[in-house]
Amino acid sequence: MARESLKKLWVMPMLALGSVAFVVTAGLYTLDHYASGTQGTPFGQYLEFSAESVSNSIGVLSSIIAAVLGIIITVISIVVQLSATRYTPAVTEMFFRDRTNMLIMALYVVGCVMGFWIAFGVNDNWVPRYSLLAMLSMATIGFLLMAPYFAYVFRLLSPHTIVSRIESNARRAAIGDSDGIPSGDTEKRQGTVLAMSEQLTDIAVNSVLQKDKIIAIACVDALRDLSISYLRRKKELDPGWFDVTRTIKHNPDFGSMASDSVLDLERTRTWMEFKILRQYQSIYTEALGSMRHLNYVVAINTRLIAEQALKTKNMEALALAVKFFNTYLRATLNENDVRTAYTILNQYRLLAEAVLKADQCDLALSIVAHMKYYAHLSYDKKLGFVTETVAYDVAAICEVAHEIKSKVESGLLKLLLEVDPTTSEGDVQEASLRGVRKAQLKLATYYLEAGAESLAKLVWDDMRSEDVSRMRSILDELLAIESKDFWEVSDRGGNFDYLEPSRKEQLKVFFGWFREVSGAMKTIDFDGAPAPGPNT
């Protein structure tokens, strides 16, 4: 890949430009040679250097090289400064640490120095032909390099390249490359990782302010790639890497924490995961209300990091990711951002399902308990749709628990039945309660279809004293939905209230239980129409 890039970026443009210049110059020189009737060959005539003319020409050529160097420095300075201002000051350091830049600059400086040295070496009796040809060759290469070098610089300073290089530097400092784990000063490597992750965050935040979604997402993805690569090789690292050194303690993200919390990060060996997720939190908070798509990407990538931690059995990092999911939800609800909460909960649900399938039952139960808490918080803030979304997501988790025969299935169902508060105040909260009941009813139809009547009975028992008019209207609404797709564009795609025909049949079974007991609920018939009675 590197060889192909070298050929495409440098060799081919230089060969093309050099070939055109050589053919045109050689052709015209040869035409002039024979048209003037000069004896000998054109090449031999070309090498008949005159000491006086060569001395003047070398000075002019040296000045031209210096002028080209000045143009390059001027253009590059402007481009570097603009990139550093827009993205991160680290661009300047990155530019001067790049070997290619230093080699190109050295080529022009050496060409200038050679020019005036050779100029003073020419006298009336002798011309240093080899030195002169070497200088001509260097000047030619320098001129031919201009176009591909400008292309290289613009490519080097493109935002995607900057992000990629920062991520690569951080990864090499943390886990090395394919040749093995890096050695050297551990504290210095830790400082590099801290600095690089903060630079990615700076670029992302600046991109949010400038509404540059593509660059912001690239930074978020780079932090994800760094985390996943790190988790894959974490067990190979030296124990000293996980020590919370002075460099880490003095970092603002750690310096503001309680000392016990920092010690916990050292004990659980999760300071680097915490740092990256902390950067996600900063980006997430900055994007709230202004760039929802970035919030979604942060949530998706946090889930992917958590799933990698689950895959590598890094339970401490997994628990940390769950904490940050809760932090995202808290920040979102504080801003009353229902749409973002709707999408973040989808990723949280997917994580809970992955944890459940990995037989991490206690953690799955804990995640659902957190979801229930935020459902109640949303209900109190009159964000009824969030409460409803939690109910549907927890119901989906309960279905997964039944499919895999999880030992915490009953505990998950209990939490779902506790999602709905007992009272409603106003239309918003009434709609929220109705949505929760629909989610519970959908789960009951799943249980009945799966032959788990005892679990469906638990749902029914929770509803047996429910208001009859509410239950009748909920039943009518569920039976009326015919399309599984929502009629607007939605990130989830599906309609919460849709039931397959086979599960609609189970609704009749479920509501038939109400007719077997006394009370107003017995007035609901199997098909949802009121049965004959005093309340009809």
Number of strands: 0
Unreliable segments (pLDDT under 50, ≥5 consecutive)?
526-536
Query: What coarse outline follows from CA principal-axis ratios?
Result: elongated
Distance N to C terminus: 78 Å
Give, in order, the helices and strands.
Answer: HHHHHHHHHHHHHHHHHHHHHHH
SS-based structural class?
A: mainly alpha
Helix segment count? 23
Helix content: over 70%
Mean pLDDT: 85
Question: What fraction of the residues are assigned to beta strands by DSSP?
Answer: under 5%
Any idea what the radius of gyration is? 35 Å
Largest sheet, in brief, is: none
Short description:
With 536 residues, the protein is mainly alpha-helical. It has helices at 2-35, 42-46, 51-86, 90-97, 99-121, 129-156, 159-175, 186-209, 213-233, 246-249, 252-255, 259-268, 271-287, 292-311, 315-334, 338-357, 361-380, 384-403, 409-417, 427-449, 453-463, 468-480, 501-512. Mean pLDDT is 85; it is low at 526-536.
Molecular structure report:
The chain has a domain at about 1-30 and about 60-155. Helix content is about 75%, strand content about 0%. It is built from 23 helices and no strands. It is elongated and about 125 Å long.
